[in-house]
Structures are given as structure tokens and as C-alpha cells.
Design brief:
- The complex is a heterodimer of chains A (about 120) and B (about 110).
- Chain A has about 120 residues and is mainly β.
- In chain A, about 0% of the residues lie in helices and about 55% in strands.
- Chain A contains no helices and 11 strands.
- The mean pLDDT of chain A is about 95.
- Chain B is mainly β and about 110 residues long.
- Chain B contains no helices and 11 strands.
- In chain B, strands 2, 4, 5, 9, 10 and 11 form a 6-stranded mixed beta sheet that branches.
- Classes of the chains: A mainly beta (about 120), B mainly beta (about 110).
- Chains A and B meet through strand 5 and strand 10 of A and strand 5, strand 9 and strand 10 of B.
Chain lengths: ~120, ~110
Amino acid sequence: DAGVIQSPRHEVTEMGQEVTLRCKPISGHNSLFWYRQTMMRGLELLIYFNNNVPIDDSGMPEDRFSAKMPNASFSTLKIQPSEPRDSAVYFCASSPNRTVGYGYTFGSGTRLTVV
Amino acid sequence: AQSVTQLGSHVSVSEGALVLLRCNYSSSVPPYLFWYVQYPNQGLQLLLKYTSAATLVKGINGFEAEFKKSETSFHLTKPSAHMSDAAEYFCAVSTWGMRFGAGTRLTVKP
């Protein structure tokens, strides 16, 4: 099992550019979560999907952020336009079941730096 | 709303000493509680979870946690710290969409 796969591992971009982060969940997991981690705010839940459908996007900070899950094996988080305050580590996680008692499996994260 | 509070952003212990990382929760319904560990430049790894079965939960790497409803606590312990335990530890509560505490950085001194 390859685990949750995120790409790229590191991204450096200029302010105003579009950034796309990618995630491949574990096969068979039907729930997917995007988190952002910063020193100031810790781990923040941005959005989660169940069976490819967005369930709660109340954590998405602004309209500049959008996420999609076109199929069960792929999700993207897009920031357009990017700003320096978006610099953070973005994690994707997946879970096999919508039942809240399951833990999540996290990817290794994408470290985003916006200059 | 459910939430967790981790007491102490930094904990330092000597190798071989007891590790105690504190977590208190707030929930109006029986909670599902978790501890995760994060090593530098890595994602979070599940240590253990409480899902209303046994109140004493054993996890990986010799860690365990005890659910105490009367104290609304779910503290993480390990009898003897190893150098390899140095990491960031997160307590979390699972509403749908897991919410994490601020984290506790554990340092292990030789």
C-alpha cells in the first residue's frame, strides 16, 4: 500500500500565480480531507469529501481557494491568485469510512512558499 | 462543538523517564479521541484511538492513553522515553472532520 500520495512535495511560487496541489487517496478510502498547517494556526481543516462529494467547505479561507475531487482516486486544491500568507504545509488525508471512529491516513504534505 | 486542548506546547524529558502529554476535550456527546505523532517534514501518523470500548487504549511504540470522562481528559503516556520519541504530538477529536489540538513538542534529553 503506497499510502496517501501528495504532489509536489515542495512548491515555490510568486504572489499572484495559480497553485495546484494534488492528492491520491488510499484505494478504497471514500473520505478525503484537506488540512493546512502553520505555526500560527496549527492544523486547520479546509474541506472534506465523501464519495467524491464536498461535504463541508466551511474551512476554506477565501474564494481564492477551491478543491475538487473528480473521481475516487484524485483530488486537487487550487489557490488562485496565491498570496504570501498562503505559505504553509498542506496535507491531504483519507479514511475508509464515513463513521467518525476511524482514524485518518495522512500524506507527507506539500510545503508551499509564496514569495 | 467538540474541541481538544493540549496543555503545554513543549515537554522535555530525559531518556528513560516517564512521558506524559496532556489533552482535555470538550464534547456534548461521547467523543472519539485520537493521538497522532508528527516527525519533522512528515505527515501525521496515528498512535492510538479511543472509540468508547476500553478506557485504557494501547497504541504503537509503547504509548497508551486513558479516557477519563470525569476529568474530560485523554492524556498520553509512555513509561520510558526513547530518543526516537522526539516529535510533535497532536490530540484530536472526531466530529465528522477531525479537529486537532495545537500540538505538544516532545524533546528527549540523553
